[in-house]
Amino acid sequence: MNERTELLEGNIKEIFLKYLIPSVGGMLGVSLYVLGDTMIVGRGLGSQGLAALNISIPLINVLNGLGLLFGIGGATFLSISRGEKKDHKVNDIFTKSMIMALIAGIILTLLRIFYLDELCYFLGASQATFQMAKDYLGVLLAFSIPFILNSALTVFVRNDGAPRLAMWGMLTGSISNVILDYIFIFKFEWGMRGGAIATVISPIIGLLILSTHFISKNNDMKLVKPSPNFDIIKRIIGNGSASFIVELSAGIVIFAFNKVILDITGDIGVSAYSIIANLSLICTAIFIGVGQAIQPIVSFNYGANKMDRVYDSVRLAIYVGFGLGIIFYAIGMLFPEFLVSIFSKDNQELMNITVRGIRIYFMSFIVMGINIVMTTYIQSKEHGKISTAISLMRGLVLIIAFLLVLPKLFGLDGVWFTLPAVELATATISFIWFKQYRSAIINCLRRNPA
Questions:
Q1: Are 394 and 252 in contact (CB under 8 A)?
Q2: Which of 426, 377, 418, 425 is nearest to 399 (CA)?
Q3: Tens digit of each residue's pLDDT (9 = 90 or more) over 59-93
Q4: How far is 54 from 33, CA to CA, in rounded Å?
Q5: Residues of the chain by 3-state class (helix, strand, coil), percent to 5
Q6: pLDDT in tens, 1-52
Q7: Closest CA to 143 of 111, 115, 184
Q8: CB atoms closer than 10 angstroms to residue 121
Q9: Which residue, 207, 265, 208, is CA-closest to 71?
Q10: Residues 6+ away with beta carbon under 8 Å from 360
Q11: pTM for this structure?
């Protein structure tokens, strides 16, 4: 009841900040899964290790995306139901979401058993990188279930009034990943398999920490026998589809970029993109964290028909997302050599290619934060078709279109220009064609009294 009163009546800036810090911290925790691997693999296993790891990253996006599909989808439905004072639906929504996450994990585990080699080649492994990619993906997919459950449960715990616990669950697992990466690769000399083992231990630690929420007096969720109401499943999937596509699009981007870059420069270009993609992963995770910070506020107040509070919270998120985008771009322009040196040393060719890529690629962050915040806002009101359409356009259609054209005109620079072009085109097209997007921008930026 205290949490409900705060969401409906508390100071919007204070509530936004309360959710912002844990949400951003939690998403940074997700990105550290990959970032820790990349830094240590780059220094311990060289450019081929970086290339093999970058080939594997799309699968991590799929795992996290499935977790967000059921986590964001279910938590959005749950928060709106609470705002409408329909608390009797809460446990059924939570149970169905967890069951679907478990089933998705089982399917991916079976994929690892029967099609691992084919998957490695499909993702772009060359003869030089195949064994490293197979070592990493084999371990990763064997632990699909805890990966997906951890990602989904984090969102539910955050929406159940425990954003700090959700953050600490993700951060603790991620910090453990970095420490174990160093031990397994440098001390035990387990190679890529060691990096993968360190990565999969992280969600297990996260699940253990998150499970303490269910013995807390503040817990309002529990697993129950699911009802035969399939409309709930449709709403969960509809609500979460945009988040799934946003996360999946990051994997599609990496997959498509790897294919194009391999044809232009070979493995050294893929190694450069591995560094850029991981830096981008950090920035994107922060933007997603800003979006997730408003999700409980928007869903709860939308359910209670308090639209002024909805617009106030989204306006704050737009300002924060745009400001962070400017900061990220400035860092890329001013300190690209330092950023590259974190991942690699004594490879001047790799340094030159990556520095050039950073200075172009980072332009995308100026607009990316606004796009992600607005998609989350529309999704949080259960406008699933619109948010999914925008996410598909941004994460698949425009990327493929620009990637087919720009590299042919500008070579490797065309690859780096693809994402800035996509983000700008997404914002422009969305504002013109999607009424919900346009009206949301206008209403949120209008200075109504709080």
A1: no
A2: 418
A3: 888 998 999 999 999 988 888 888 888 878 889 99
A4: 13
A5: 90, 0, 10
A6: 456 677 778 888 888 888 888 888 777 766 766 677 778 887 888 778 888 8
A7: 111
A8: 13
A9: 207
A10: 413, 416, 417, 420
A11: 0.73
